[in-house]
Amino acid sequence: MTATIPYGRQDISDADIQAVVEVLRSDYLTQGPAVPAFEKSIADYCNTQYALAVNSATSALHIACLALGVGPGDSVWTSPITFVASANCALYCGARIDFVDIDPRSYNLSVERLAEKLLQAEQAGLLPKVVIPVHLCGQPCDMAGIHALAQRYGFKIIEDASHAIGGQYRGHPIGNCNYSDITVFSFHPVKIITTGEGGMALTNDAQLAKRMQLLRSHGITREANEMTQASDGPWYYQQIELGFNYRMTDLQAALGISQMHRLDEFIARRHALAERYDNKLAAFPIVTPWQHPDSYSGRHLYVIRLKTDLITKSHREVFEALRAADIGVNVHYIPVYRQPYYENLGFKPGHCPEAEHYYSEAISLPMYPALTEAQQDRVIAALQKAMAI
Length: 389
Ligand SMILES: *Cc1c(COP(=O)(O)O)cnc(C)c1O
Known about the structure:
The chain is α/β, with parallel strands linked by helices. β7 (168-169) and β8 form a beta hairpin. Strands 2-10-9-6-5-3-4 form a seven-stranded mixed sheet, with helices on both faces. A three-stranded antiparallel sheet has the order 8-7-14, with no helix packed on it. It has a three-stranded antiparallel sheet with strand order 13-15-17, with no helix packed on it. α1 (14-24) runs antiparallel to α8 (250-260), α2 runs parallel beside α8 and α5 runs parallel beside α6. The chain folds into two domains: 5-260, Type I PLP-dependent aspartate aminotransferase-like (Major domain) (Aspartate Aminotransferase, domain 2); 263-386, Alpha-Beta Complex (Aspartate Aminotransferase, domain 1). 37% of the residues lie in helices and 14% in strands. The chain has 13 helices and 17 strands. It binds pyridoxal-5'-phosphate (PLP). Pyridoxal-5'-phosphate (PLP) is lined by residues 56-58, 82-83, 85-86, 134, 160, 162-163, 186, 188, 199.
């Protein structure tokens, strides 16, 4: 019996464990020094002014939308090829959601489709308030193109960089918000670095940072200059907004700080594995991940597309054969609007044809720093067998 090779998994060192144990022995399990230290390490790494740690990327997306004023009557647009959280955040705010079809090569939100859809929306008076590009697999979207459209049509941008910490766009770190209002990272264990559960919202805008800070902790302030009346005494605080408890703990932040020390190492290893897959799969009847020259991907996922017209097996048969061979492949993602909840909102099959075509062919192969070359060879052999080539 061989153990299943998962599509992704965390990499925890003795130093990571030690860092968490130190917090357990300290005075603060939450709201201590580790959270601000983790925020500083990410802000410094990304060269961004403000970084706010929260308990998940989902929470970060929610407070990012709220900070940008998304509410009933507004529209938010995102990619259909993403995790549901990128779209749900708009619905939490009572806004409408819509989807922009993907680019056939990068599988990211297509700037051409976005430009077309904006033109139509402008005529109908239904322009989006926020667009959420998702850096699928860690590869950055065409941010310069999206930013130029934002200038012209007046929408805000939240980058869903849940897959992309450690990557770069045009030589600069993803997360610097050079082309966006807010960038969000996820630290779920399958992502690039982990805090167990956790997320971060980054921005260079002091007002947005302030609002997100309030929203992550009940809408409560202890700053005298934000209060509506004089303080009753040293114990005093005021709730000035309806916020949430979206805080990260110090246990999580300590793990995050420790993981940050190995971020570049993780990304380099992911690139080495991707290159090895690229070479060994070059003759297979599949499409390997295309990389835009502007991008240095975080390489969170390695997605292949089957050329189903060149093989006798179906997408599902190949997938099932890989799972039967203990290869923990996955599909990222089911187009969000094909989920029953979204179909109940009125979305119909065919809304984004390129995304649906992609979905019918995509398989995520195992990709994580501790994947060995021997394990990778097992994946490749199993794929060859599964495709009957
Ligand atoms: C994982 C993920 C999220 C949600 O992250 P959590 O930290 O689990 O809330 C959002 N968007 C994308 C693209 C993701 O992959």
